[in-house]
Amino acid sequence: MNSKNIKGVLHLMWTTKSAVLMIFMLFLSAGVFAQGKKQVSGTVYDNTGSVLPGASVIEVGTKNGTTTDFDGKFTLQVAAGSAIEVSFIGSTTQKVQITGTTANLDVRLQNDGYTLAEVQVVSVGYGKVKKSDLTGAISTVGADDLVKGTISSTEQVLQGKVAGLNIIRPSGDPAAGATIRLRGGTSLTASNSPLIVVDGIAGVDINVVQPSDIKSVDVLKDASATAIYGSRGANGVIMITTKSGTKGVSVVYSGLSSIGYVADNLDLLSANQWRGYVRDTGNTDAVDYGGNTNWQKAIEQTAISKSHTLSINSGKADSGFRTSISYLNNEGVIKKSGLERISGNVSAYQYLGDNKDVKFDMGLFANIDKWNPIDYRIFERAYNLNPTIPVYDANGNFSSVSGNIYENPVEILTNRTVDNERHRLLGYFKTEVKFLSDFTASANISLEHNAVKGGTYKPSYAVMEGRTEDGYAQRTYAEYTNAQGEIFVNYNKTLDKHTIGALAGYSYFENIYEGFGAQRSGFVTDAFGYNNLGAGYNYRLGDVYSYKGKSNLVSFFARANYSYDGKYLLTATVRRDGSSRFGENNKWGTFPSASAAWKISGEEFMSSSKGWLDNLKLRVGYGVTGNQDGIGEYKSLSILGVGNDSYYDPVTKTWSLAYSPKQNPNADLKWESTQQINIGVDFGLFNRITGSFEWYSKTTKDLLYTYEVPQPPYLVGTMLANVGEMSNKGVELTLNANIIKGDKFTWDANLTLGHNIQKIEKLSNPTYKTDVIYSGSLHGLAGMSGQYSQVIAEGYPVGTFWGFQSAGLDADGKMLYYNAAGETVAESALVDVDKKDLGNVQPDLTLGIGMNFTYGNFDLGISGYGMFGQKALNATNMMLNDPNRLPAFNVPDDFLSSGITSAPKYSSYWIEDASFFRLQTLSVGYTLPLKYKSSKLRIYVMGENLAVFTNYKGVDPEIGLNAQDGADQTGLASPGIDRYNNYPRPTTISVGLNFTLNN
Question: Is residue 833 exposed (0-12), middle (13-18) or buried (19+ Cβ within 10 Å)?
Answer without folding.
Answer: exposed
